[in-house]
Amino acid sequence: MIIDSNAYLGHWAFRRLRYNTGEGLLELMDRVGIDRACVSSASAIMYRNSHAGNEELLEEIDEHRERLIPFAVLNPTYPGWERDLRWCKETLGAKGLRLYPPYHDYGLDEDCCHEMVDAAAELGMVIEIPITVHDLRQSHWLVEVLPVAANDIAVLVADHPAAKFVILQGNGFAGSELVTQLEQLPANYWFEMSLQDSYYRKELQQMKASVGAERLVFGTGICFRYPESAFVRMEGLQATAGEKEMIFSGNMLGLLGDE
Amino acid sequence: MLIDTHAHVMYSQPGADDSAQRTLDAAYVEAADALGIDLLVISCPMVPKPTPPEVFRHANDLVLDAMAKWPGKIWLTTYVNPGWPREALAEIDRTMAATDDMVALKLLRDYSCADPVCFPVVERCIELGLVIIIHQAHHTKLPPDYPYPKVDAADVVELARRYPEAKIIADHIGGGGDWEWTIKTLAEAPNVFQEISGSQFDEGCLEMMLEYLGVERMVFACDCSISSSVGKFQALPCSDEEKEKIGSANFLQLCGRL
């Protein structure tokens, strides 16, 4: 089985996305053999009221729940997030929550963030934190959003040992505290691999050596990105069949409570 | 056949311990072999700027060394700084004499390609039938202290219009810039090809290239982002024949080797 921990539908404010409906995402998944995908609303990232994106997500995934696993997007600085989070859990059936601190203008060290992480963890939701949404060099001229700092995530995971985190769409982690302090930090965070190369500079290989296959999860970034590149990275990763199975699905199944 | 038309060896100072750089070079060739890339068209332009002649000569020697180490696997893209016109022209001649497989010239970050300082080397390339490979990207947010001249598709088009007989490849559509801007800008410059390399693999980019540039003006390349680029190539919504054009035939035709 292959589970994509990093998928999206909806709209992105700065360019057209294709395959951005439930049906479209399934078409893209079928093209490369992805069985299930953790999907959130791309629109919710830029909506002032992110929750409207969660409501749109429900309309798109409701008939495809066996394959599309809903993840919520919420802004802890926006009124009503507690109620919205409960709706996401109970009505949307969200298995996780994606945080966008730079887009929603808060820090991972702020009280509102801690409160939302606690609330989501209490509901058994996985917390996913994308380092970036797109390459900074293609930022819209009116909007510049910096990546999430990996060391800020290290502080957050230490503060919330009962929560489970997945770090999406990042690379260059080798010097970050998430890797250098691996033994000191709680084992409550995983790395999605879609931007880590396994050929040439071999970052994915080095991550496996540093954090272990049990802390890596497969992801593609669809429908923002072509899924094929993530599969090429997995092909190049020197790992046992068992390790690849963990990365492709086992670790994420465990996180989702579907083990 | 698959040709990575934008590959590099790593620069190292003359006489310095270069084991790390040469290990990376070997890793690149190994990766290419593993992924079915038959031929690497290599330059070595990631050097201190502004680049004096002794540096670009040494950089080209590093590629020639790699060609000797992996015979048949590598063709040379000579790199020069056009700001040293006499030395740059001499270096083109020197590297052409050094190998039969010098097929292109690289311009990177010394000047905008539309700067008249580049015209003598461009004219020499036209005379010799060499492909001109130009580093470019439309970065919407360049830092104020960005140390290099801005070069994007508009500069490439300006050069291409001045020299319609020039054979030009614009570097890395996935190099991080606004690829929609780049593709639309290049659309009306028929002597400019666009290669698909870069760390970014945004869905929809290749389809837009096909729509605006067509199969005939697309070229495969990796620019060290091997997984991203090979994945993009796999994703191309093209027939096998069209993939053959993008993967190798278009470039071979540009080089006069088809």
Describe the structure.
The complex is a heterodimer of chains A (259) and B (258). The mean pLDDT of chain A is 97. In chain A, helix 3 packs parallel to helix 4. Chain A has one domain (3-256): Metal-dependent hydrolases (TIM Barrel), CATH 3.20.20.140. Helix content of chain A is 39%, strand content 14%. In chain A, strands 1-2-3-4-5-6-7-8 form an eight-stranded parallel β-sheet, with helices on both faces. Chain A is of the alpha/beta class and 259 residues long. In chain A, helix 8 links the parallel strand 6 (165-168) and strand 7 (189-192). Chain B is an alpha/beta fold and 258 residues long. Chain B has one domain (3-255): TIM Barrel (Alpha-Beta Barrel), CATH 3.20.20. Helix content of chain B is 42%, strand content 14%. Chain B has nine helices and eight strands. In chain B, helix 2 runs parallel beside helix 3 (85-98) and helix 5 packs parallel to helix 6 (179-186). Chain B is globular. The A-B interface holds A 15-19, 28, 134-141, 144, 195, 197-202, 222-233, 236 and B 24, 27-28, 31, 34-35, 137, 139-141, 175-180, 199-204, 206-207, 224-228, 230-232, 234-235.
Radius of gyration of chain B: 17 Å
Query: Strand count, sense and closure of the main sheet of chain B?
Result: 8 strands, parallel
Spell the H/E element sequence of chain A.
Answer: EHEHHEHEHHEHEHEHEHH
Helix/strand/pairing category of chain B: alpha/beta
Fraction of residues of chain B in helices? 40-55%
State the distance separating the first and last CA atoms of chain A.
12 Å
Q: CATH topology of chain A, what is it called?
A: TIM Barrel
What are the low-pLDDT stretches of chain B, counting only 5+ consecutive residues below 50?
none
| Helix-and-strand structural type of chain A | alpha/beta
Oligomer: heterodimer
- Average of the residue pLDDT scores of chain B: 97
Topology, number of strands of chain A: 8
CATH superfamily of chain B: Metal-dependent hydrolases
CATH architecture of chain B: Alpha-Beta Barrel
Count, helices of chain A: 11
Looking across the biggest beta sheet of chain A, what order are the strands in?
1-2-3-4-5-6-7-8
* Overall helicity of chain A: 25-40%
